[in-house]
Specification:
The protein is mainly α. The chain has one helix and no strands.
Amino acid sequence: MERNLNVNDIAASDDLEDFENPFADSGGDLEPAPSAPASTGGPGTCLYLGPSGQRCSRPAIDGSFCARHQPQGLRARRLTPKQVTRRAAASVGVLAVLWPVLADLIRELLRLLR
């Protein structure tokens, strides 16, 4: 048994006169579809979404974000001395916590290499 099913196949019926237009009987009383608002050519508003989903209302610059919300790659960011010392302290803290695991790992690697 052969089964052939063509869904939305326009090639199966070449004459489109069989197609019934549901709007043909209205006599042209249809209103035209609303068009999209005209583009101003500018990037519009900032695309940033806040933690609660609120949009930023500042005008966008290059990259579709405002100056405050530029992604890290597009905005030059300098670390303050306070941030540098905080990062250094955090790194030392992580090394202090992980030191026993790292010491065991180094000891086992040296034992295997002998």
